[in-house]
Design brief:
The complex is a heterodimer. By secondary structure, chain A is α/β, with parallel strands linked by helices. Chain A folds into 4 domains: 204 residues, Pyruvate-ferredoxin oxidoreductase, PFOR, domain III (Pyruvate-ferredoxin Oxidoreductase, domain 3); 85 residues, no CATH class; 96 residues, no CATH class; 90 residues, no CATH class. Helices cover 56% and strands 9% of the residues of chain A. Chain A contains 22 helices and 8 strands. In chain A, helix 2 links the parallel strand 4 and strand 5. In chain A, helix 1 crosses helix 6 and helix 9 packs parallel to helix 11. Chain A is elongated. By secondary structure, chain B is α/β, with parallel strands linked by helices. Chain B folds into 4 domains: 240 residues, Rossmann fold, CATH 3.40.50.970; 148 residues, 3-Layer(aba) Sandwich (Rossmann fold); 173 residues, Thiamin diphosphate (ThDP)-binding fold, Pyr/PP domains (Rossmann fold, 3-Layer(aba) Sandwich), CATH 3.40.50; 76 residues, 2-Layer Sandwich (Alpha-Beta Plaits), CATH 3.30.70. Chain B is 38% helix and 16% strand. In chain B, the strands form 6 sheets. Chain B has a 7-stranded mixed sheet, sandwiched between helices. Chain B has a 6-stranded parallel sheet with strand order 16-15-17-18-20-19, with helices on both faces. A 5-stranded mixed sheet of chain B has the order 9-11-10-13-14, with helices on both faces. In chain B, helix 13 links the parallel strand 13 and strand 14. The chains are: A alpha/beta, B alpha/beta. Chains A and B meet through strand 2, helix 2, helix 3, helix 4 and helix 10 of A and helix 9, strand 8, helix 11, helix 14 and helix 16 of B. Strand 7 of chain A pairs antiparallel with strand 24 of chain B, so a sheet runs across the interface.
Chain lengths: 514, 725
């Protein structure tokens, strides 16, 4: 007997997101339509943002037509036995694939391209995000067919919960014996936020019908201030004229940023510094790659995060406009923005001339004040006084080049650039890894200190020995790359220490003095 | 409570001729009312929290039936409640999460089952075993065995569950023994329907009270010397009576099949999974007809020897499908057959794994392995094994294609008041070095997961302080115990605090005072500010501790990370001996949001001034180190691609679900992270002064070159550049 089998639906969601609502809609619609249906879930009331699943079986023959027989419906999803796999988040769709619930012979995947990053992805010191392209490729490879689109965006536009969009997409897939009207009726019967959820439903439905698969959006470029451009024209022309095409994008961005950050003269310094690397690039046959990456990192490093830069960013009109528009969704209500600053002694000394700053910092160090004494403040940046405080700090831009921090940064940068040039003479691949090490230095306070320390450790224990011939060049590029990765694994530096020890063991190198 | 069942409880009024639609747990409640219970109670825990929530929401209706409801302070108090059925013909049911709740209840259970019961006594066990389980993987079976209580494990469809509850009370009364009904997590949440019957009033109840106690009868006590007589009663009278009842009412089911030289004995709760696996292998249809004969044990203890012998005698071999370890049923069947000298070979653990949940894949593999070993006449076992492999064989390849996926365990909610305590603990340990942390059960157990990853032991609900008793004296530094207010009242007050004070112990205890038992769905408990009748229960943790003699006690608002850090350091370093308690005070944010949102909505409607705050990160200032996330772990604090074309590391981002608790800002401040956090506040139904001040400020700032309220000019995009390779 070739009996009709139940249609099986696995919903992967995050705890607290409303997967239960979607399940109820489907169950109620199926019950109203007279089909045997059963849903189960493992919510555990404490599921809280963790990955969870809901499972539904609908028997596509109406109870009335079964002559008193009832199908035995399963409570657990079967590996290889899923008709529709729905996920509100892309990684969770991937988890369904990894669990064996998505098979090419039958599974129709309906999943959102949106990501809700897992803890491990968020806490990485660099970029810990799982590879989205891989997720999409593997889902497509394993599914009978897949409908992937950004449900979170559609839900936000419709003002609905994401479950409504999912229900619409399920309706549009025509895999269930339920009509669009029956599913809409389930939303209406629920009685909660009916209008917005119906909007979300239709958005999902239309997308499913159009079967359009969106691509992830490329990152939009950072806008640049209009008035800065005019004074920049010359430098921009110079970039286009003198630098290889590979470096144009970053170098243009660099000169614009540094002009806004400090002055055209400072951007001029950037180009001068790049010129040396351009030469090294050409001589080493790096085909512009070395220059391109240096252009990127040099611009970031030269626009180091000091009080002036923070103050500039805080009073930027576009910032307030963004907060009002995107975050508070202000119509005409009064609003305020409060910023938190907590400079320490080092931060306060940043703008003092080195001859004043050094003795103060030395004294603070002796007294144990560094890392202990901070000046916490909360500033209402939307008040006149708060605005003026930041505006005054921003104006101190003029004295920045005479300050202590500036001197430190330039010295550090010059050293890094010299290393790149020297490394390029040996091997472009090695030089590129040295360039990338700039990534380590970022942030404020402890983060900055730790990053700088990690950079210096890699310099003294790998880069310098490699240049001196103590580490074979063939291995040096790899060694720098793995040390850099290790430095970004844990803030305590345990991974980096292990990695360095391993590298030194392999090269039988006596431990270099730190 | 997190979930309201006000709508669903209406289904509890259904009567003869109506069809009930709903969740398994609600069906059980209906079955209790149909059975004429006089009292119900329990302690919340997944997957039966909702059973208690439903009972609370149905209190009016239960009052109509004269049913007394008690939300007990722990499982021991719930189990002891069943004592009402020892002397009186009162039917009663209690519920809790097993195995942990049964462990807590064990003393009362032993002393209940020894004298036995007059009125039907039932314990609904939420069997939290397998996927999604949050407890040690042990089974309730051992308790049934050792105390001679009967264990029901109904097939997970609503009509069978309801029938088993109803018959269970009859069974309890017929055999004078308490019964336990175990429901796996999915069965609790399975939806379905059954033909309802009228609710029944209990023999005696709040409406029809009992007139005085019975004559003194020593036999009703669990006390020597009658305990020896009671032991005899258990095995010589109650057990045979139970077996006779089970057989007579056909509580266990038999599914006939044409492959009559083999068979399957399955725990009722696993029946649907086994039938589906057989169906996928072509050995059953979707309506539950099977080619292999199946014995469905809706009562897993006691087994009925005659039924077992009869089922097995004519077969060459039988497979026992029994989840979990040890294999009680398989052993019992083997003994039974041995006694009857029946040579049927029993398979069980072997083709099926010793431990772990019997998922679809495990069953497909196990059934195929059994068939290959048993080789029944009439089918090609090898072909079926091949077919089974075809059904799950793709999984390793699919998993390998993706590689290890980032795990996504549950975590503290957005705005949770307990998270800041762990941020503070992280900061304190950074300064003072790692401390021994004795963890506990409750939401705060999420502190054992990233990004906090702290906690050296979890010994049970409310046990953290007690489990540090021998740690502190053997370590150079003080240990820290963490306990929720739920755990404090459940057990910690006596087991932990009293014991510590009694022994003049030292150490630090953090009590998370969020006002509810939050992890199980925000039920009220003794120090809640409200109770199910709206009045505060009136018990206070601080006063309780002071009256017990705690000298060093601080109450700290949890969101003040700097203050919490300071207080913790002081507790760790003070020369003062004795227990040091920090009450970390902050209402459960889920509960708070539900309340505040409703209040704000009313205020907004009435035109009252309402301010709403949320936090944000300036992505231009954030450099993508994510220290803030490592110290906070808030679900609303996440990452997004850097808008800066020169940076590749993603930047921190506060998403819309932010409730404005301020932890991210506090952490950034306390740990001196970075200046990118800000708090944005909007004033709705603003006063004239609000509006004037706002406009004045915006105008002046506009003159000074800042944001004047007009949309900023659209930024010019970068000129098109050929994509750099």
């Amino acid at each position: 007997m070739t009996a009709q089998r139940p249609i099986t639906l696995l919903i992967a969601a995050l705890g607290g997101e409303g997967g239960g609502v979607l399940t109820n809609w489907l169950v109620n619609a199926a019950e109203d339509a007279g089909f045997p249906v059963q849903s189960t879930s493992i919510p555990g009331v404490a599921q809280r943002t963790g990955a969870t699943t809901y499972y539904i079986e609908i028997y596509p023959v109406q109870i009335a037509a079964l002559n008193g027989k009832r199908p035995v419906l399963a409570l657990t999803p079967g590996v290889g036995d899923i008709d529709i796999a729905v996920a509100s988040e892309l990684l969770e769709a991937g988890r369904a694939v990894a669990g064996g619930f998505v098979t090419p012979n039958r599974t129709h995947v309906i999943a959102s391209l949106s990501r809700f990053y897992a803890m491990d992805e968020k806490t990485a010191m660099g970029d810990g995000r799982f590879d989205t392209d891989k997720l999409i490729a593997v889902i497509n490879d394993n599914a009978h067919d897949a409908l992937l689109f950004d449900m979170a965006k559609l839900a936000a536009e419709a003002g609905s919960i994401i479950s409504a969009v999912m229900l619409g997409a399920i309706a549009g897939s025509h895999r269930l014996p339920l009509t669009v009207e029956q599913l809409e009726a389930a939303i209406r019967a629920d009685g909660k936020a009916v209008d917005s959820n119906l909007r979300g439903f239709r958005a999902g439905l239309e997308t499913a019908r159009a079967r359009s698969v969106e691509e992830t959006q490329p990152t939009p470029p950072l806008p640049v201030k209009k008035n800065a451009r005019l004074t920049l024209a010359g430098l921009e022309d110079e970039v286009m004229r003198d630098l290889p095409a590979a470096a144009h994008q970053f170098a243009i961005e660099g000169v614009r940023r540094l002009t806004a950050y400090q002055s055209v003269a400072y951007a001029r310094l950037y180009l001068d510094r790049l010129a040396a690397i351009a030469q090294a690039d050409a001589q080493s046959g790096a085909q512009g790659k070395l220059l391109k990456e240096t252009a990127r990192h040099l611009a970031v490093r030269m626009s180091f995060e000091d009080v002036v830069r923070v103050a500039q960013a805080k009073i930027e009109p576009s910032r307030m406009a963004r907060i009002a528009r995107d975050e508070l969704r202000v119509k005409d209500e009064p609003f305020s923005v409060h910023d938190f600053l907590k400079p320490g002694i080092e931060e306060l000394c940043q703008l003092l001339p080195p001859f004043l700053a050094r003795p103060i910092i030395r004294l603070a160090e002796r007294r144990g004040w560094l890392g202990k004494v901070y000046f916490g403040m909360e500033i209402n940046s939307t008040s006149v006084f708060g605005y003026l405080r930041f505006a005054t700090l921003a104006k101190l831009r003029a004295i920045r080049p005479y300050g202590y921090r500036y001197a430190l940064e330039q010295a550090q940068l010059t050293g890094w650039l010299a290393l790149i040039a020297e490394a390029a003479q040996r091997s472009p691949a090695f030089a590129l890894e040295v360039v990338e090490c700039a990534r380590l230095i970022k942030g404020y306070g402890d983060t900055y200190t730790r990053g700088l320390h990690n950079y210096q450790t890699i310099e003294t224990r790998i880069v310098r020995p490699a240049l001196a011939g103590d580490i074979p060049l063939a291995r040096a590029a790899d060694a720098v790359a793995s040390a850099r990765t290790a430095a970004l694994v844990d803030p305590e530096g345990e991974s980096l220490a292990r990695c360095l020890a391993e590298i030194e063991r392999q090269t039988h190198l006596p431990i270099a003095a730190e | 409570m997190e979930r309201s069942f006000k709508k669903e409880v209406e289904a509890l009024r259904l009567g003869d001729g109506d069809t009930f639609h709903g969740e398994g747990i609600l069906a059980v409640t209906k079955a209790l009312l149909q059975s004429g219970v006089s009292y119900v109670g329990g302690y919340q825990g997944a997957p039966v929290s909702h059973l208690l929530d439903v009972l609370v929401d149905a209190e009016d209706m239960m009052a109509e039936l004269g049913v007394h409801l008690e939300t007990c302070s722990n499982e021991a108090s719930a189990a002891a409640m069943l004592g009402a059925s020892i002397n009186y013909p009162l039917r009663g049911a209690v519920t809790w999460k097993s195995i942990v709740g049964t462990n807590v209840a064990a003393d009362a259970l032993s002393n209940l089952s020894s004298p036995g019961v007059l009125g039907g006594a039932m314990i609904i066990l939420g069997e939290d075993y397998g996927e999604g389980a949050s407890v040690i993987q042990e089974r309730s079976y051992a308790y049934a065995l050792k105390s001679s209580m009967w264990l029901l494990d109904p097939r997970p469809d609503l009509p069978t569950i309801v029938r088993t509850v109803e018959l269970g009370f009859d069974l309890s009364e017929a055999s004078h023994a308490p019964v336990m009904l175990e429901l796996r997590i999915r069965a609790c949440h399975a939806t379905g329907e059954f033909a309802a019957r009228n609710n029944r009033k209990g023999v005696a109840s709040g409406l029809d009270k009992i007139d005085g106690p019975p004559r003194f009868n020593y036999d009703r006590l669990a006390h020597p010397p009658v305990i020896y007589k009671q032991e005899k009663l258990k095995v010589e009278e109650r057990m045979p009576a139970a077996r006779a009842f089970i057989a007579k009412h056909k509580m266990n089911e038999t599914i006939d099949g044409d492959l009559s030289d083999i068979g399957i004995v399955v725990m009722g709760g696993l029946t649907n999974s086994v039938l589906r696996a057989l169906e996928r292998l072509g050995l059953a249809d979707v309506f539950g007809a099977s080619r292999i004969p199946i014995k469905v044990l809706n009562v897993v203890y006691p087994l009925v020897p005659d039924e077992i012998r009869e089922f097995c005698a004519s077969k060459r071999s039988v497979l026992v499908v029994e989840e979990g370890h040890p294999d009680y049923i398989e052993q019992a069947i083997n003994v039974e057959l041995r006694r009857a000298d029946i040579q049927t070979k029993i398979y069980g653990k072997g083709p099926l794994p010793q431990s772990g949940e019997y998922t679809s894949e495990v069953l497909l593999e196990g059934l195929a392995a059994y068939l290959q070993a048993a080789r029944p006449a009439g089918i090609d076992a090898d072909a079926i094994a091949e077919q089974a492999r075809g059904l799950y064989g793709h999984k390793p390849k699919a998993a390998a294609a993706l590689g290890p996926l980032p795990p996504r365990p549950p975590s503290f909610c957005t705005g949770c008041p307990e998270r800041p305590v762990f941020s503070a603990l992280k900061l304190v340990q950074r300064e003072l070095g790692p401390a021994h942390i004795s963890a506990d059960i409750g939401c705060h157990a999420f502190g054992t997961l990233p990004p906090f990853s702290m906690g050296n032991s979890i010994l049970g609900y409310g046990m953290s302080l007690a489990s540090a008793a021998a740690v502190g004296p053997n370590m150079t530094e003080r240990s820290i115990s963490i306990m929720g207010d739920g755990g404090f009242w459940h057990n910690g007050l006596i087991t932990g605090v009293a014991s510590n004070l009694f022994n003049k112990g030292d150490g630090v205890l953090i009590v998370m005072q969020n006002g509810y038992t939050s992890a199980t769905g925000q039920q009220f408990m003794p120090s809640s500010l409200s109770n199910r009748d709206g009045a505060a229960p009136g018990m206070d943790i601080e006063k309780t501790l002071r009256s017990m003699g705690v000298k060093w006690l601080r109450k700290v608002r949890t969101y003040g990370v700097a203050n919490m850090t300071k207080t913790l350091k002081e507790a760790m370093k003070t020369a003062e001996k004795g227990l040091k308690v920090i009450i970390a005070d902050g209402e459960c944010q889920l509960a708070r949001q539900r309340r505040v949102r409703a209040e704000d909505a009313i205020k907004l409607k009435q035109g009252q001034r309402v301010t709403h705050a949320r936090y944000g990160v300036d992505d231009e200032i954030c450099t993508g180190d994510h220290s803030c996330i490592r110290l906070s772990g808030c679900p609303s604090l996440t990452v997004k691609p850097s808008p800066d074309p020169l940076r590749t590391d993603p930047v921190a981002n506060v998403v819309d679900s932010c409730v404005g608790c301020g932890l991210c800002g506090e952490v950034a401040h306390a740990a001196v992270l970075c200046p990118s956090f800000y708090r944005a506040e909007i004033v709705r139904n603003a006063t004239a002064w609000d509006r004037f001040l706002f406009r004045f400020r915006q105008t002046v700032i506009g003159w000074l070159g800042g944001y004047n309220g007009k949309t900023a000019p659209a930024a010019e995009p970068l000129p098109e550049l050929k994509a750099a390779a």
